[in-house]
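[agent] plan:
  1. take the single chain provided in the ticket
  2. run structure prediction with default settings
  3. attach structure tokens to the ticket
  4. add a short note for the reviewer (M.T.)
[agent] executing step 1
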Amino acid sequence: MEALGKVLSCPVCLDLFTPPVLVLSCSHNFCKQCLEQILLCQNCTHVNGQFCCPVCRKVIYLRGRGTNGLQRNILAENILEKFKDELETIHAKEQNQLAQMCEKHGEIMNLMCLNDDEPICAICKLFGDHKPHRIAKISEAYSARKISFAEDIQLVLQKSESTTQATEETEKLINELITSTADTRAMIDTIGSSLLNGIKFRIATLKKKLDNEHSTKLEKLQLVARELQAPRQLYQQMRTLLEQHLNAVQFLHEDKKLRTEMERLMEGNSLPKVPGKDNISIRHYFQELLKGMNITDFVLSKTDQVLVNAAELCEAWRSGCSTQSTLSGDIPDEILCKTVLGLFQKPNEKEPSLPRNPSCSACSPSTAISPTQEVILGQKNQQYKAIFRA
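[agent] step 2 finished; step 3 output follows
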């Protein structure tokens, strides 16, 4: 086998031929891929080129077809295939023999230790650890075990057949679970995206509405402010003209313009009234933002305590502001805003600071609350809860 292996080996890679096998005119055989490497080494890249045989140095002509024009040795390939099959057979026999050899003593295991239930060799019985154990010939143990093994196979087969229906049902449930999970995930993605888009659209709409309301009210206030500043501006212009005019002509020209403006201003007889307080209603936009949603699904666990504190502060502010200007009547809107921010606050963040009335002793945390105030605070607390959960 070794001599045949040398004959079937390529003189370039020194290994068994890798088909296709090409034979040259000098009768030497090569792997096609090895021969192509030889052509590259000899700079023979043209289809009409020539090269020297690596074994005998004979000049070989490609004749216009490159390596595809060289003859293929089908006989060598067939012998090579049979040789490889024989090598595999021999290797399998060797592995089989090695499997029957005792690893400790290198002898064939022809006995069966009944105590340890494992094959052993004769030396293991005579001089080894199995000397006092009961033994049997391995052929007898093999025959008996083979019959018992066949019976065990039938029992396993019956068990397998009895679980076939249950296995099919379980696999069906697994497939249904996978399908329902995929469908649910698709539903969550679709509906969730739709809800997010709806919330984003609502936010954008409210921001645009807020900008429009802000612009309208700001323009109104700026117009009033300009009208209120008109007399003082006219006074400054007239005084500047009186003190700093260059000549009589320039004075008379400017006097005519300013006199006309003064007459228009004096015709009104009364200054424009300062408009009443008209701030943006945080409460309104808060309710619009959460319309159709339950805020209790999004707030933190200490919501109720925050609501109680907000109601107490709101009532304390109003009781302390009873003698103040009416302009401070809407301050609880600010309390509402900061309280809502506190509901969505993360646990490691500081609590939002709420406004306090410096003149109000009721705003102090240590101030005692009378029974009447407790009733009022309870009512306010319920009102705030109703607003938040609307």
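[agent] step 4 note for reviewer: Strands lie at 21-23, 29-31, 50-52, 59-61, 71-72, 111-113, 118-120, 135-137.
[agent] ticket updated
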